[in-house]
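Exercise 3.2. Students should predict the tertiary structure of the chain below and write it as structure tokens, then compare their answer with the key that follows.

Predict this chain's 3D structure.
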Amino acid sequence: MKADVFVGRETELADVSALLERVRHVTLTGPAGAGKSCVARRLARTLEPRFPDGVHIVELSEAPGDLDSLAETFADAIGVRRRPGVPALRALVDELVTRRTLLVLDTCDRVVGVTGILVGLLLRSVEGLRVLATSRQRLGLPGEHLYPIGGLPDADAVSLIGTLTGGLIGGPDAAEHCGRLDNLPLAIRLAVAGGGPGILDGLVTLDGRPLSTAGLAAFDGRMASPDELAAAFESRTDPSAGRGTHGEGHDAEPHRPPSTPRRHSSMRVALGWSHELCTPPERLLWARASVFAGTFDIEAAEEVCAGGVLAAKDILDGLLGLLDKSVLVREEGENGVRYRLLNTVREFGLVWLDRLGETEEVQRRHRDHFLALSARAEMSWQGRQLEWYRRLVLECGNMRGAIEYCYSRPQEYRRGLDLVGNLWFLWACCGMQAPGDDLLQRGLDLDRTVSPERVKALWVHAWVSIQRGDLERAERILTECAAEDANGYATAYVSQFQAHLAVVRGDVGEALRLIKHARVRHRSTGNVFPGFLPTYTVVATAMMLAGHHDQAVSILREGRELCESCGDYWTLIRLDLLLGQAEHLLGNTASAAESARDSLRGGRLFGDTISLMEALEVFVVIAESSADDIFAATMFGASRAAWKNAGVPPSRSPMIASLIRTSELRLRGRLGRAEFDRLEERGGSISLRDAVEHAIRGDLS
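Answer key:
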């Protein structure tokens, strides 16, 4: 393996170089293994022409912790001429005072406080001095500019693996595997050097052969034993192997690449350095926060991580401390501030959580928090739909973790089913039909005891099955739901979704009979959504199938007014979709196109891929009827590719199915087979997102 490889970082190098033109002190911060030292040393070489009096690198990983000794370390690294009786600090200032010099202070972590003091003294005394430091936390000086160094971009991470293995590795899965290592250069280097099982599973050589760990070991010029390879993998983040109380390891390092410092001998050792920097409360918070999958907010941290010696009032200070030490990542968006542990950092914390004997308790608190959050979201979904969607999209990893906790413990099966059922709006309305289908099916298979939670999960599963086009399964599930619903809780939902199935079959009379029953029951219980309002879609579709297009438009407009007054913006998407069809059938092309655009805009807000794909088909029909053949044929290809990529059959009603078939035949006739196929293929290369943009704009530019 190539030992000294530097890939990417063009942006960082340019940014920091420009920053040092304007300021005197820059500190590169970032998590263990991000490559702060490599960036700093590369900058040191490129900046030499700007500092005629020298660029000096001072390695501080083993530096002493008192001011006088640290000044001597600086003086020795710079080559200061020492005079008897003159303190090192005085000699250092005298040497530098007339020079234009850059000091690169590498790995300040363990002496960050005293380094800050010394740097402050030097900057005040030496006008021509510039300082570039690397540290997992700030030095804390006035005028210090922090520049974060994170993981590599995907393309650069894949390029790094290819370079390290001499071009052996290729294939589309490389980015995913690098992502598991947070795209951290050190983690990637160590994974390749150690050939750890699991780290690089699935990677292939450029000729398509699976990349074996033995192949990597041989490429590195030696043959590692199976035990060695297993140890390399197991120890990459395990803090327990060869580690003292504070996390420093002194174990053998069989896979350390040549010229790699000992602190970079494994991710375990590198993370151990970060662990040492933390206070005891911060270490405890790190371990407990590792239960979160993805990002989390302060509310979740206080409810899940507080307890015992770590009080809720201390959580914010702990988070700020972990941020300052580059253990946590802070992300700010429209839903406020959230925090995240990198995968490698989280794995390290999970091992510590297990060593503390707290894994079960903290996982239970995690489950309780997200079960309660799911219940709150369901209760206030109507009227706050976009707000809850945007929040819960960020919590998908945590929700899944809480569900998996329940599904792995028989006594918790019902709580897992409760949690999955509470999130019906994600599974049915927000483009998450596939994971919802899987989680609902698994929960129902695990807990077969009749209960309100199971009955609810059954009608939700039926709804999701309809969305995914599996109508036969939906029928079976609704029959099972009705049989288990002794108290009649789900009667209205069973009728509602049976009516939907009837209208898809084209049985207008049966659909109207069933939907009337559902609407009466929903009204009597005050169930506006997901009960009464979505029934407008069935009634309107039945009217169109019966040829009563004017009535369909009136029903849809009535439904729209109710949805707007109730804050049900998701049902608006479905009503606008149908309104586009009804207006088209009445010959109102402009109104039809505007309604279809409104449906697309709404579907995009909720990530509702099913509605987006159906709306694209409506646009095909409208464009074809207006003789906009190139646009229509291209959008036809885009919609067909989108359905194929979704892995589900189109769940369209008989009306749109008939319209799209007619439009396809007309387009083929007018364009000719070859041109139609060419445009369809062109559309198939357009992503769903881009196709939606084209449809909203009404052109292909």
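Discussion points: The chain is about 60% helix and 5% strand. The chain has a mean pLDDT of 88.
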